[in-house]
Each structure stands twice: as structure tokens, then as C-alpha cells.
Amino acid sequence: MESQKVDMFLMSNNKFFESYHLMEIKDLLTKADDSKLTNVQIQQYKDPTTVLIISLIAGSLGIDRFMIGDTGLGIAKLLTCGGLGIWAIIDWFLIMGATKNKNFEKLVIALNY
């Protein structure tokens, strides 16, 4: 893929990924075919800030975990009322990183690696 397209993708989507993933993403996209660019661009990446706000509002119901695709953890969090509140508070600090990691996994799957 052209360097210009890769840089444009990174500039417009860097908030969805951890900073330490950006160089790896750049390498993966550079090695990928131009035909995979469309597949990567149509992916709907979750906004970590939005998921954090949902976690603050309804974290004890597990909605934040359902949003990022952790269905099993969402059910467990729902049944335990957010781990009696403790798990919900811990997720306030961890959910943005978890969202960014899920976005990275989605990108790698879109590139078929």
C-alpha cells in the first residue's frame, strides 16, 4: 500500500489504537495490498472515549463490555452487578485500553493476517 494512504489512515484513526500499536499498524498496512485498503477503511472502530462514558454511566450492568464485544465478561458483570461495584470501578481505568486492543484485533482480522 502507498505510504501516503497509510499515513492518512493513521492520522485519521490514531485515537482508536494504542500508541505502541501504531508502528505495527504502519508496517502491516505498508505490506498489505491496495485491495485490502477498502476492507480496512469500512471497519467500524469503537471510540474509547464513548465506551468510557458508557462505563461511567452503566458500567455495573456490563454494557461497556457488551459494546466492545466481550459478551462473556458482560454477562458476568451484569450478573454480579459489576462485581459488587469493584469490577465496575476497575473498568473505569481499563476499558479504554481494552477498547483500543479490540480495535487493533479487528484491524488485523480485516487484513486477514
Report on the structure:
This is TM2 domain-containing protein. Its main location: membrane. It is a multi-pass membrane protein. Residues 45-93 form the TM2 domain. This protein is an all-alpha fold. It has one domain (3-110). The protein is built from 8 helices and no strands. The chain has helices spanning 3-13, 22-31, 35-41, 48-58, 63-68, 71-79, 81-84, 86-110.
**First-last Cα distance:** 15 Å
Helix content: over 70%
Structural class by SSE content? mainly alpha
Rg from Cα: 16 Å
Shape: elongated
**Sheet with the most strands, sense and barrel status:** none
Give the strand tally.
0
Tell me what portion of residues adopts beta-strand conformation: under 5%
Subcellular location: Membrane
Organism: Sphingobacterium kyonggiense
Domain TM2: 45-93
Pfam families: TM2
